[in-house]
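idk why but the lab printer keeps eating my pages so im just putting this in chat instead. protein + adenosine monophosphate:
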Amino acid sequence: MTEQRSACAAGMHIVLLGAPGAGKGTQAAYLKAEWGLEHISTGDILRAEVRAASDLGQETQGYMERGELVPDDLIIRMMEDRLRSLGAGTGYILDGFPRTVAQAEALDAMLARIDHPLHAVINLEVPDAELIRRLSGRRVCPQCNAVYHVDTMRPKQDGICDRCGAALIQRKDDQPEAIANRLEVYKAQTQPLIAYYQQRDKLVTIDGTIGVPQVAVEIHRVLCGGA
Ligand code: AMP
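predcted complex ->
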């Protein structure tokens, strides 16, 4: 990537929208590496709370394992704390938040209070059959959150994270029943955000099936203009 590209999105506030398995985490990792944006994944934060057996983790574990959404008030409070802790001028990517209209309204109110406008909401579109293929073959590193796939993104050594050497796991919510539930929850509760952000002129939809590097190029084009 060129110097110009590297600088253009630093400091931006971006929401990645899309169904589970659409590639939000993968693209957020690219954006973080490219522009030094903070990657704020509500799923990763909640899984760390569960691992630490904190009050929040104990309260949210059941919802997560069933593929249901954690109640809005818990998530909104958690994100208020997280966003307030960021230094002025810090750019970030929100991955997995907001997921309901109530969360989006709360985010708008928070950002208005701290004067951090959202620059763009990028919606990654992927058909259900492909989402199910991706989620059911997904393996993750519980230590550094790196993501693999049993067919298309295998680690160098079977079952071991390339980045940190930890043993890979399958998330409980990547089992078939929870996947079906998550896709239903997405359609009922998160998909309405597409219209929400369209009405506010923030939404850009990208085809999430064109390949990881190509999606990253499209995101660059959207945020920075040009090819
Ligand atoms: P993810 O890693 O983004 O797929 O999130 C995993 C799980 O964490 C979800 O299925 C929910 O149970 C919970 N979760 C993550 N983000 C949110 C959110 N914004 N609102 C409610 N629940 C969430």
